[in-house]
Amino acid sequence: MKLTGDVQVDVLLSSHDTGGRYAICRIVAPGPARSPKYTHAWEDMFFYVLSGRVWFEIGEREVAAEEGASVFIPRQTPRSLRCEGAAQVVVISHPGGVDLFFDDLSHRENCPGRSSTDASILDKHGIGL
């Protein structure tokens, strides 16, 4: 599913398949991309970089992760992600639910944060900007 711009998200294992325990998704950015700073209220997130280089801003520190690196971010921790070139990342959320957020967001034209519909999607999934 298309997330925003050219960024693609593939659900590899949905939270429905795991009884809500976790979800696994692959994020593919064919070129430069950046997320806003956000928090997940309910999910711990584990990221594994398949290719490229991804910068994670976690709280006040920045971590550069290249192919084969992994990053864990606990729930309620402010974070943002960026890549300056093509990158692929596997995301595992515990509990599941981030796949449902991606699905809801994929039905929107714009990146979250501005419209009331986007705000309701963020609220529904416990995500704060």
Quick structural gist:
With 129 residues, the protein is mainly beta. The protein has one domain: Jelly Rolls.
How would you describe this structure to a colleague?
The structure is a single chain. A six-stranded antiparallel sheet has the order 1-2-3-11-6-9, with helices on one face. It has a single domain (2-128), classed as Jelly Rolls, CATH 2.60.120.10. The radius of gyration is 13 Å and the shape is globular. A hairpin with a 2-residue loop joins strand 1 and strand 2. It has helices at 98-106, 116-124; strands at 2-4, 7-13, 23-29, 33-34, 39-40, 44-51, 53-58, 61-66, 70-73, 79-83, 87-94, 127-128. The chain is mainly beta and 129 residues long.
Strands, helices and their partners?
Layout (H helix, E strand, L loop, with lengths): L1 E3 L2 E7 L9 E7 L3 E2 L4 E2 L3 E8 L1 E6 L2 E6 L3 E4 L5 E5 L3 E8 L3 H9 L9 H9 L2 E2 L1
Antiparallel strand pairs: 1-2, 2-3, 3-11, 4-10, 5-12, 6-9, 6-11, 7-8, 7-10
CATH class type: Mainly Beta
Strand line-up of the largest beta sheet: 1-2-3-11-6-9
Could you tell me the CATH topology label. Jelly Rolls
CATH-level-4 superfamily name = Jelly Rolls
**Given the structure, what is the number of helices?**
2
Low-confidence stretches: none
Strand content is over 45%
List how many beta strands DSSP finds: 12
Indicate the mean pLDDT: 91
Give the second-level CATH assignment, the architecture.
Sandwich
Major beta sheet summary? 6 strands, antiparallel
Which series of helices and strands comes N to C?
EEEEEEEEEEEHHE
The gross shape turns out to be globular
- Kindly report the oligomeric state of this protein: single chain
